[in-house]
């Protein structure tokens, strides 16, 4: 659509998504907690996810994972345009 967020940002039909931000939750376990038998606490980390050769479902999962970002930062896309 002409007024979509992608169109406003300059994304065009045929652009190739090469990478995007993604969030992952892992358990952070300080040594003292491990020694005391604790299980740690969840920590969300944000990274760049390479989409090259990945199935569509994995790319979509990576994009949706940005909803877990506790800071609510915008999604970053790395696009390639072949003209």
Number of strands: 3
Total of helices: 3
Q: Ends: how far apart?
A: 21 Å
The computed structural class is alpha+beta
Largest sheet strand order:
2-1-3
Helix fraction by DSSP (H/I, runs of at least 4): 10-25%
- What does the radius of gyration come to? 17 Å
What percentage of the residues does DSSP assign to strands (E)?
Answer: 25-35%
Instruction: State the major sheet.
Output: 3 strands, antiparallel
Low-confidence runs: none
Query: H/E element string?
Result: HEHEHE
Output mean pLDDT: 90
Query: Which descriptor suits the 3D outline?
Result: elongated
Tell me what the structure shows.
It is built from 3 helices and 3 strands, in the order αβαβαβ. A 3-stranded antiparallel β-sheet has the order 2-1-3. With 83 residues, it is α+β, with helices and mostly antiparallel strands. The two termini are 21 Å apart. The longest helix has 9 residues, at 56-64. The mean pLDDT is 90.
Give the SSE layout.
Layout: H1 5-9, E1 16-28, H2 31-35, E2 41-50, H3 56-64, E3 77-80
Task: Name the features.
alpha+beta, three-stranded antiparallel β-sheet, 33% strand, 23% helix, 83 residues
Short description:
23% of the residues lie in helices and 33% in strands.
């Amino acid at each position: 659509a002409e007024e979509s967020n992608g169109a406003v940002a300059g994304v065009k039909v045929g652009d190739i998504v090469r990478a995007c931000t993604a969030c992952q939750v892992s358990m952070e376990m300080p040594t003292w907690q491990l020694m005391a038998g604790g299980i740690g606490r969840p920590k969300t980390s944000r990274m760049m996810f390479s989409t090259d050769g990945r199935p569509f479902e994995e790319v979509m999962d990576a994009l949706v994972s940005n909803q877990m970002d506790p800071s609510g930062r915008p999604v970053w896309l790395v696009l390639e345009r072949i003209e």
